Amino acid sequence: MTLTRRAGLTGALALSFARAAAAASPPKALEELTGDGAAGRMLSVGVIARRGDGAVSLSYAGGHRIASSPRGDVTRPFSLEDPFRVASISKLVTTTGFMTLVASRKVSLDDDAADLLGFPLRHPAWPDDKITVRHLLSHTSGLRNGPSYPVPAGHRLSEAFSVGGRHYDRGAWFGPAEHAPGDWFAYADVNFALIGQIIERLTGERFDRFMTRTVFKPLGLDAGYNWSGVSQGKRDRAASGRRWKDGAWSPQVDASPPRAPATDYPQPKGEPAVAEKDLKLGENGFLFSPLGGLRLSVRDLDRLATTYAHGGEANRVRIVGAAELGQMSEPVWRLDPDRPNGDTEGGFFSAYGLGVECPQGLPGPAGDAFFGEDSQDWRGHFGDAYGWMTGMFWNARNAATICYAINGMPEQGRPAARRSAITGPEEAVIDAAILSLKHP
Prior knowledge:
By secondary structure, the protein is of the alpha+beta class. The protein is 24% helix and 16% strand.
């Protein structure tokens, strides 16, 4: 990967957030996941699983986080409160904010994205076919990540889609001619950069601040895209993304987060740096990474997952309507084995909603039975970038939840899972969580 069902929380579930009940001793398999990367082990792992009534069945953090300082790297035990770059789970959260605009009828899922973006957006092979909001949210737009990804600050994202634009990349942002918009699934981050840009143009509000206002602040989360809105105290606990290289944990991202209230965004190469005050609203949706740049902790993921599991409402705070969450969770695209209609990435994808992965439970190492026999009941999203492997899922039938983060995954030669297309460490974490949910 490049990088609905209940109306609200019960009193017992709300109380469980305050008490965070201690789970049983962690399985040995989790303790064995971390170590030195030369042995194929990870730097850190954290996981929380809850039953539908809010009771914690598993809560575990192991390994270490590493931060850089003027005096060298500082190593501390990894905890469930430490923030990190969550990768593509960001897409699901971005969709959550976007769907509040759908609910208020400021935008329709079948609107032409070009009208909302203010520039022509058409596949060159299909100039008469509009690319809709639904296409963007479900990765069925016909778009791909071009070589100029991500388009940097001070540059317009429209330059990637206009012939002669400095980021047009000979049309590499568009898929093959036979993949018409709406007919083919291909996972591409640029879809959500465009969604972020649409949010700014519809609201007149910067994407990161919109997400803080509509999702994070209502839930009381100290979280944000590209560190926006995250307190200095939480930034001081940052767990940088690492990979094992030359006998050490090499930093990939967030070794030294910006000091609050500054944010991170892609700067142009070979050009003067662009100051935050000079960022142009509604011109470049890559700037605050709606596609992967969310920073939060496993504890924060747990709060979000439980909210989704209970229809978009937690402790009388609603972040998305139950109807809109239902739309997100219903597959827009399903793999058709008799007529290839999408890139499954080795079996990882078989169905996708609006910013939500919808496992179909296909068996085997190239399948998506990530959660065992009831995999079709689970909804959520995985993340994979800069050494982090993450997951946030809820069970649409019984409201159970699983959230995890693993740091230290190599880019190549990853440990394989036994029963599905994810990695071995991820499968070990999910197995431990599922076991805990089944056995009080």
